[in-house]
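Sanity check

After download, print the first record. It should look like this:
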Amino acid sequence: MKENLGRRTLLSLTIRSYFIRLFYNYFNLFGEGLCVCLVPFTNEDKDNFLKQNLKFFNTNEYLSGFSLGIILRSRDEKPENLEKAKDILSSVAGSVGDRLLYKLILPVIVLTSLNLFAVSGFVLTKEAVIIVLSEIVIFNIFSFMLRYYGIKNGYEKGLESIRIFRTAAYLKAVSVFTYVRNILILILIVNLFILLFN
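Expected structure tokens:
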């Protein structure tokens, strides 16, 4: 097994991970997307690879980097443990990613924008456009870094890399985002009441 993935491989996998959602279906969820991402990085026959890996697999597209890195490591290190690793990842990456991204980070971004528009009386101002575009850019930089870091860390540490989601720092970040989301919801409700009764 190689000690690290090269920068070119990491960038290629990171870019490919953006397309994992395109292959989402109800038969194998992200199984096809996983194969599309990994096929160029395997040495075995493509038909054999697809036969072994075109199975049910759940993940979150933003945390798919961890899955890609860990699966590549498992294939190189201990192929007999690959199915066990995929089963663990299928539950962890999907639930953690959905909770972190869809229930916390994205709602904070959307609620911030909605509050901004509510305060401005739903008038599109130059400042509002700049803030919303800045949020989009910052989120996409965060998304790229999360995927890149996930692939790199997943390959270097294997299943140990997902322990980051049990650390005190991660739990604190979830707590802060939950608090901020709830405050933004309350502020939006107040802003809407002010608009309705003025």
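If your output differs, re-run the checksum step. Summary of this record's structure: The two ends are 67 Å apart (CA to CA).
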